[in-house]
From TrEMBL:
Keywords: DNA-binding, Transcription, Transcription regulation. Signal peptide: none annotated. Pfam families: HTH_11. One of its GO terms (molecular function) is DNA-binding transcription factor activity. The keyword Transcription regulation applies. CDD domains: HTH_ARSR. PROSITE patterns: HTH_DEOR_2 (PS51000). The keyword Lipoprotein does not apply. It comes from the Bacteria. Gene3D superfamilies: Winged helix-like DNA-binding domain superfamily/Winged helix DNA-binding domain. This is Predicted transcriptional regulator, ArsR family. Residues 6-65 form the HTH deoR-type domain.
Length: 215
């Protein structure tokens, strides 16, 4: 017996907004054949969860009306092939110019990220830098958190890896990231204990110590 997947009303609304781009409550209600009250309840939840955003649209006649559309977070709910495309392009570069060119590309990416974020490290002590690094990584989609280690250092955990697909094919990108951490924190004491891209665990796990403090 084949079990069919049941699509929730909320999922139907998200798909409608993806297809139509912008819709009013009444338009969604008419499309799904449900009450406007039910649509508003779902849209309020989706707006609270940052899946949809609303704007007030003026009409030629009558009162302005709310128009709903997917937010950036809502758009990301749909499948994307960024990782697959990146891997394909990197393999072409590797076949043409060799692995040295790949390493050079990731090194340049690391330098660009450093220039972007080093200003946020300015005039901060080591402890503050570590916490700022966790904030930066979370903003980049890594779902990072940091806690103090009993040995006096820090443990940085990343529960998501936006570049995992690429890192599985080109682990050199993980080395470049570790190098970025060292440069932003101004310490050589950064070691990667676990890496989800290589299948070692379900999160990435870094141990960080202030090597300057031991000199």
């Amino acid at each position: 017996m084949t079990t069919m997947k049941t699509t929730s009303t909320r999922e139907q609304i998200i798909e409608l907004l993806k297809r139509r781009e912008q819709m009013t409550v009444s338009a969604v209600a008419a499309e799904l054949n449900i009450t406007e009250m039910a649509v508003r309840r779902h849209l309020n939840t989706l707006e609270r969860d940052n899946v949809v955003v609303t704007t007030l649209q003026r009409q030629a006649m009558g009162r302005p009306t709310n128009v709903y559309e997917l937010s950036n977070e809502g758009q990301e709910l749909f499948p994307r092939s960024y990782g697959e495309l990146s891997i394909e392009l990197l393999k072409i570069i590797q076949e043409t110019d060799g692995m040295t060119k790949i390493e050079e590309l990731f090194e340049r990416r690391k330098d660009r990220l450093k220039r972007t974020y080093e200003k946020r490290m300015f005039m901060k002590g080591f402890d503050e830098r570590v916490k700022e690094l966790a904030a930066i990584q979370s903003e980049l989609g890594y779902m990072a958190e940091v806690c103090e280690d009993e040995s006096g250092g820090y443990l940085l955990k990343e529960f998501n890896c936006p570049i995992a697909e690429v890192a599985r094919e080109f682990p050199v990108i993980c080395e470049a990231q570790k190098s970025l951490f060292k440069e932003l924190l101004e310490t050589d004491g950064v070691t990667c204990e676990l890496c989800m891209a290589t299948g070692q665990g379900d999160h990435c796990y870094y141990k960080i110590v202030n090597s300057q403090a031991h000199n």
